[in-house]
Amino acid sequence: MSVKEAVLNSVKKRKKLNERLKKMIIERLNLDLELVEIEDDAGLFGMGLGLDSIDALDLAVGVAEEFDVTIEDDQMEVFRSVNTLADFIEQQTEGSTDND
Amino acid sequence: MIDKVTELEPGVRGRGIKNVTINEHFFQGHFPKEPIMPGVMIIECLAQLTALVYCCGILQEKGINDMGKLHDAHIDPEEIAAQVGYLANVNIKFRSPVVPGDQLILDCILGKSLGLLRKVKVSAKVNNTITAEGDLIVSRKE
Question: Could B119 and A61 be called an inter-chain contact, meaning their C-beta atoms sit closer than 8 Å?
Answer without folding.
Answer: yes
